[in-house]
Automatic annotation (TrEMBL):
Complex I functions in the transfer of electrons from NADH to the respiratory chain. Accessory subunit of the mitochondrial membrane respiratory chain NADH dehydrogenase (Complex I), that is believed not to be involved in catalysis. This is NADH dehydrogenase [ubiquinone] 1 alpha subcomplex subunit 13. Its main location: mitochondrion. It is found in: Mitochondrion inner membrane. The keyword Transmembrane helix applies. Belongs to the complex I NDUFA13 subunit family. Pfam families: GRIM-19.
């Protein structure tokens, strides 16, 4: 059995040194940039759709939270009136801050039974 060996004088040089790869590289780069733009455009559309859905839901969620807060606030005022009924000069629901600025209510659930 005879094996293939390297020919005498060596292997001939590859013809790549004579080929101009500039136009091929430019076409490949342009193709990759176009593909990246398509991917980024799709991601942007998906993100915008997600944000649009959130913007549509926020008013409804805020209305539900406001309704819950009003119910809890009424319970809180009733509890405050019951607890402070014997304190002279106490006004139920009046702000304890005297800065003249509006102070937002404490966040979280209003639970007078825990105080």
């Amino acid at each position: 059995m005879k094996y293939q060996t390297i020919p005498p004088g060596g292997v001939p040089a590859a013809p790549l040194s004579q080929t101009n790869l500039g136009p091929l590289s430019a076409c490949y780069l342009q193709y990759m940039v176009q593909q990246m733009q398509q991917v980024l455009s799709l991601q942007r559309e998906i993100k915008e759709e997600k944000y649009a859905a959130r913007r549509a839901l926020v008013p409804m969620l805020q209305a539900e939270e406001d309704e819950r807060f009003v119910k809890e606030w009424k319970k809180y005022l009733e509890e405050e009136a019951r607890i402070m009924k014997d304190v002279p000069g106490w006004k139920v629901g009046e702000s304890v801050y005297h800065s003249g600025k509006w102070m937002p209510p404490a966040t979280g659930e209003l639970r007078p039974d825990v105080w």
